[in-house]
Every structure is written in C-alpha cells, then in structure tokens.
Amino acid sequence: MTFDAWQLPDGVALPDGGPGLSFSAGEVDVHYPEATAAWIRALARTLQDGREELLARPAVRIAESLGRVGERFLEDGDPLRTEALRLLPHTAGLSPEMASAVLDGMAYGWTADRLAALLEADLAGGEALDGFVDTSRGRVRAVGPALCVQVASGSVPGVGATALLRSLLVKAPTLLKPGRGDLVLPVLAARGIREADPVLAAALAVVYWPGGSEALEAAALLDADVVTAYGDSHTVRSLRARTPVSARFVPYHNRISLGIVGREALVDAAVRRAASDVAGAVAFFDQRGCVSPHVVYVEEGGQVDPPAFARRLAGALQDLEGRLPGGTLDAREASALQQVRGTAELMAGSDSGVEVRHGGDADWTVIYDPAPAFAPSCVGRVVRVKPVPDVSEVPRLLRPFRPNLQTVGVAGCGDRLEALADALVRVGVIRIAPFDAVPFPPPWWHHDGVGPLRALVRWVDLEG
Amino acid sequence: MDTEGFDALASEIEALVRGGDGARVFGDAGARAENGFGARALRVFAHQFRANPVYRAFCEGRGRTPDTVDAWQDVPPVPATAFKHLELVSADPEGVEAVFLTSGTTAGREGRGRHLVPRLSLYEASLMAGVRRHLLPGGESLPLLSLVPPPAEAPDSSLSHMVGTLARETAPSAAWLVDGSGRLHVDGFLDAAARVGGSEGGALVVGTAFAFVHLLDALEERGEAVALPPGTRVMETGGFKGRSRAVGREDLYAALEERLGVPGRRIVNEYGMTELLSQMYEPVLTEGAAARGRHQPPPWLRVRALDPGTLEPREPGEEGILAFYDLANVGSVAHVLTEDVGSVEPDGTLRLRGRAVDAEPRGCSLAMDELMASAGHGGAP
Q: What pTM value is reported for the model?
C-alpha cells in the first residue's frame, strides 16, 4: 500500500523530483515530496492568492461546506472513510477497531451542525467574520490570518484535520504540516475539500515533511500571520523562536491528564460504570492523547476501596481489549513500557504496597500505588491508581505540574464537584469532564484555555 | 541474610577480574562456548535470588527461579528505572560501602537512581581492568588531567570514583580541573597542561563530552590552544543528554585535536552507567581507528540487543534495546535492562545508537522527563 502525504491547490506542481521521499509505516509506504524552501515559499504565496474569494464567502456557508466533507468520514462505504480506516492502523499504530472508534469520535466534531455550533460558541455565529457588526461599544470585525501555518505533530489521528477546519472557518489560507502519525486524515480531508469546493481548496495545502526541517519551516513561517504549533516542548519552543515577531503564535504543547473518582461512584450500583468509563478514557488513542489520563486518584472510605477499584479497572481494561484492542507501540514506547512495568513489578515485591496487573501481551497495565505523588509514566494504556483520603486533596498534589496540566476526568464527586473544580482551576487544569467525555472534547472547547477560532482571529474596530 | 554467599562469590569474581585472564576464565564474549561466564552468571543469579527478596518476588512473578533457569539469558532483567525506586542490594545492607547516584539528567534529585555497592574493591578491580586495557595498554604511568570532579567532592558519583581510583593506581600526578559544583578551572587546566608539557609518554585527560565542550569553548574564547605532549590520550564519556548545546562527536574530536593537540586515534570513548560496575570502551588505542563505533565489554560483562516489545534477542547487527549482564554487579542485580539502543556484533562488541530512538515521537502525551523538566525539577548542575 502507498499513501501520498500531500494535497495541493490546483496549479501547484510537486517540487522537482516529485514525491521523491518516503518512509514506511506498518504496511504502508508513505510518499512525500522533496520540498525546498523556495517551493514552500511559492506555495505559501499561491495559498494567499486564494484569500479574496474566501473572504467573500459567508462563514456559515464555509461551515456547511466543510461539514459536508467532514460528514463523509462518518458514512460507511464513503471512499474517504474507507481509505482512512484502511490506512490508520498502519500510520497511527492503532488497532482497526480503535481506528474506527477514533475516527467516529473525531469526525463527530466535523459535521455541519457541530461546526456551526463552534462558530456560534466562539464567534457569535461568525457574522463578524463577514463584515463589521454593531456592538454596544461600537462596530467590530473579526479577520482571520492572511496565511495560517499549522505545524501538527504526533499520532493522535484527527488533530491535524481539526486544525485545518478551524483555520478555514476563519477564512484563513492554510498550510498544514501534519505529524508523521497523523497525516492520513488531514490529507484525506483536504482531498474531500478539493472534490467539493474549489474556493476552499485553492486556499489549502497539506504537505508532510519531517519535523525539525529548519529550512522548510523557516520558509513556511516567513509569510505566516498566525502559526499554530502542536508538539513536545522542544518542537514548540523551536517554532516559537523562529516565528516572525509580527505573527501570532498559538502553542499547543504537550500536556498531561488525570482522573478523580469520588466516593459516590465507589458504590456497588455505580462502580462498574465508573471503572468502565475510566478504562475507556485511558485506552482511547492507546493513551497518546493529551487528554488521556495517566493517574487516577480514588477516594478512600467508599464501599469499594482504592485497591479494589484498581482491580475493577484492570478487569475493565481487559474487557475493552476484546472490543477495542491495543495497537502497536513503537520501539521507544515499548521500551518505556518495559521499564515502567518491570519497575512496578519489582516494587510489588517490596514493602511499597504497590500492586500490578497487566494484560501480558496486551499493553494495558494497572499499577496500584499508595504513594500519593502525581507520577505520569508512559503510553500504552498504563494507569496508576492512587488513594486519597478525600478528593479535595488532589489539587495540592498537582501544583508542581501546573504548566502542563490539561484534562481531569471526574466521577462520583457529587455536590463536591463545584469546590473541587474551583481548586483544580487554581492549579492550572484546563478542562474537567466526566470520564466518558474525556477522549473527545466538543469542537467549541477552550482548547488549552482559548476558544479555537478566537485563537486565530484579529479584531478590528471601526470607530465613528 | 546471605552474606557468606556474597563474600565468597564476590571474592571469586574479584580474583578473576584482578587476575587479568578474564577472557580465559569467563570465555570470550563472541565465542559460542561460554561455560565460564554462563556458569558463574547462573551462580550470581542464584545468589541474588536468595539474598534479595524484592528481586526474588519479581523473578517468581515471572516464573523464573534458579531451578527453572538454565541459561543466563533467561534470568529476568531489572529495568534501570528500578534503581530510582528501590535499593537493589544483594548483600548485607549494613555492609554497603558506597552509594552511587545516577546523574538524573532531567528528573531532579528525587528522580536519581541509587546503586548500593557492598564491595567497592570489586568495582575498582573491574574499572581498573578497563582502564589498563583501553587507556594504558602499554602499562604506562601518566599524569592525569581530570575534567571529572575529584571523588572527595563528588562522593556519590561513580565516574568520580572511577577517575579517583585510576589516579591513585596509575598516575604520578593528578590535576582536578572541575570542582564538585561542576565549575571548570581553565587557568588550572592551562597550568597543568604546561606542567605535563615535557612528560615523556604524554598525559591522560579524562572528562565527559560535555566538560570537553566547555573547555574547548573557554579555550576558543581566550584564543588559547595547548599542545599536550605526544602520546597523550583522551578518555571521553557520556553524551549530551538534556544539555543546552549539542555538538557532534566528529566536531568534538576535531576541536580536541586543534585545541589540545590530541589526534583522534588517541581519543577513546568510554560507555558506562552508574547501574553497571563494568565499563565498555572503543578499543582505538589497541586496534586503531577501525575500532571507532564499537564498544568492547570486558569478559565478565555481556551485552545483548532485545526486541523492545517481546524482549526476544535480536540477530547480530540488528538494533534493539540493550540488556547487560555484569558479574561485577554481584552485590546488586547483574542483569539490567536499559532504554539505550544499539546492536551487538557477532564478536560481542556493541554498536550504540544513543538514547533517542525515533526522530518524531508519537503522541501528544507528555514524557515524564519533559514533564519534570518543565515543572522546574530539572537539570543536573
């Protein structure tokens, strides 16, 4: 199988040498062009030429058009969905079942209704993108960048495609460099857009090059008005340093998530559901998502105590292995898992109180660890269960990790949730959600603290 | 506690290491016949299984006991990470003579591994065998210029202990040019270089790659270059993990030649880690430049490259994660699984590929090291 990791506007030819480079991902040979700085610059200019027609299109019409493409990923038998499901297990390392579930979850956010709701939530329907609107304090207009350069990363499939929908929604010509593990969906989305809507397609390019290619990135950044960067802190720092001073930089650096299970969920009637929901949150994306919990704090004093909850969670992960099996870990992930599992097994033989359960060849691992400190470990469905006397004690434990916290999954906190949430806000948590909602935030969520469209637009005042 | 068993076994291994005929006794790493090594490796396993209840429970959990294991390759390896969480001593804990800490590249003080060493003389015998074979193969006695802090100022550093030992055992004089806080004394280096200028046979200069980069930067800034006497050799160790400035090895060696006058054929890379009490070297002094890129273990240390998922051994020449079986670790755990990547040649030598495995990590989830670093725990001095 081969896959061409690019989608270019009409009139842009591949650079000299064509798709000269490739790498293999599972059974797929991924081809990509041997881009040069000059070619990227020319591409960026071509994209900018498409802006006028974008600006003339009402934002709600853009949402409808993009939504029609997004919905194709949900329709069984549609060639876009079929190809995505054929490729994703190889390029993203997910099992076919998980790839399908991830695509369902992601594409649910790409429908016309959901994109219209995003416009509504973030930009009051998007009228301000079409012209000046009256407000109580004068006339304002929102304008997207003349060129939005998006450097995506990683292998959480769908992140890149979501990124390009956002920037097109604010009428921004978009150059997206997908991550190695997430290049299928943005390329297919761009292909769908090209088939459906020439105006949008003229302002969109998706092209892969290996991350860290400084000359290519420099060429891309040169004309950018807005740069979004996804990735580890090294990648984001490096891109930030090279972004022109006049451009806005929108960082989505790697973050870490966790869960809290309170007493109200630790009763016979509720614990099964709680364990199953936690297992799902851990297992989705094989835990590669920044929303994926690594530690679950379980309150003491419930009918089911924390060690017993850890056993329940292990059972739930084992059940899930049947429905949504784990995929393949890359060498580094597998190596890290050996260290984490082996160390936990050793600790289980000491007086540490640690208990380990794992799936053998299946990657899931549950480590019950009485030590309260927050301690993320590795990916591959590895979760630490830690007891706390009271859920209100969790925020204090998170304080050292403030800059990197993201989602807290919650269950069974009852009417204590409000106070807990308030304390979590103070230590830097960005999102609090029931465990079953953890994997797929809605399109209008405040992604790392900012509305996803507001992060991209400038506001212009027309004073009179 | 099984201290008698430890003493007898450790004495036996130490005597063989000191005897210098390790290859004959333990067998050559590349040879198929390795009865000497294999038999002792299994005795070390039996001892550690008896003496270390934590390790015993681990092995039992994996269904591997001295009764069921008949090849050292099947002894359960301990992940190097475990040194950060457990005191893995296989002797009387009261008799521990030294505790060495890993450098803790980014995980901060509390994240540093601890290697408890119940018999320092075995470590010293093992390290001296490597030093004599790979740095002083002609039995030389050379003045030492050390860019590693002296052991008195860095008592928890196994590298400092190593350099202190080689100074004590072989060097007519020693200049310590980096202090316990990691500060480099450039003037001291220039003075020491001048003092050894007439030394017949040259000098031995040791340091981490990172320390050499600092020294070279300082010399460049001052417009200084020294010409260390002919015969001078450099031992360079460690990489640039987590450091602010990455320099390629070729660039480093070219600069060492330019600024110190030591040609590449006399620069020896050492590969070691706190968790192992034996070291590997590129045998360039004895085998020439062709040995560059291959690290040779001593006969009492075996290295294997394993599949990271299954821990099955890789074919010779095929890359995998590295597991070491070090008989000098008889007082802690002998079989150690690391996250380092490399391949093992048919002759038992190691080709390293450093720490980073993939250019582009998958996932937007955060790695522990990165998290700790950005949470402000970070950074070795």
A: 0.91
